Amino acid sequence: MRLKNIFTITYLCFFLILSCTTDSEIKPPEEELIEIIDDTEPEVEEEDEEEENTEKSFQKILSLGDSYTIGQSVCETCRFPEQLKERLKLKTGDSINFELRVIATTGWTTTNLKNAIANENVSGDYDLVTLLIGVNNEYQKKTFSIYETEFPELVRTAISKAFGNKNNIIVVSIPDYAFTPFGNGNENISKRLDRYNEFARAFCKQNDISYVYITDITRQGLTNNDLVASDGLHPSKLAYSMFVDKMFPFALEKLND
After folding, report:
1. Percent of the chain having pLDDT more than 70?
2. Neighbours of 179 (CB within 10 A)
């Protein structure tokens, strides 16, 4: 009986101890939540300044004319509009992109050029326009009054294609093909061309339009064969480079305005 009581007491004590342990189960301490604040400013991608600085401006050149503008019997890069464009690129470095458009064909008179411009989709946003026309009026023996009427019209058209600004125009005199093997020194050709060139010069002076006289260069053709193309009639690459020597200061000034 006594043993039974001892067993009962022992069992009760064990039960009590087990209950206390379960109720007060030891739990690991809760981790303290620490808010981490990143006060570093977010990185902002900066625009590539170098790319901005190398962004090129854009300028457009329009050359109107006949065989002397298209560069009959010389390579495409030899004609004076291309040489002028390249000279401007060399001067300005990589800062400017130049776009050249040439509207010219061998044999065109002032009438042909007028009609061609009217039929072409020519915008009015050119920074520089060159005009060299008239030799075929003389060669085809057109009446001089046609030139007197149509040359001023072509100048006004050129101005309209250059933002309406006459300061963006360069008129180039007519070369003298009398001083080539084809012309054989024919003085009558020179006299007739002098009349055309004098009219153009006077018109440009009266209207304050840049006029570049290159006829004197072509009059060296019989003494300097290097100035005449292989066809014995048109200017050579060298002659066109001499045209550009005279035109370049005017072109550079106009594009810088």
Report:
1. 78
2. 24
CA 254, 83, 235, 113 torsion: positive or negative?
Answer: negative
Q: Where are the domains of the chain?
A: 56-256
Q: pLDDT, tens digit, for every residue of 118-159? A: 999 999 999 999 999 999 999 999 999 999 999 999 999 999
Whether domain 56-256 has CATH 3.40.50.1110: the reply is yes
**Sheet arrangement for strand 57-65:** 96-104, 57-65, 128-132, 169-172, 210-212
Q: In what helix (H) or strand (E) does residue 60 lie, and over which residues does it extend?
A: strand 57-65
Looking up tokens 């939540």, which residue turns up? 33
Residue pointed to by tokens 């040359």: 151
| CA distances (Å), origin 206, targets 48, 133, 220 | 50, 19, 29
Q: Count CB-CB contacts under 10 A for residue 51.
A: 8
Cα Dmax for the chain? 162
pLDDT score for 18: 46
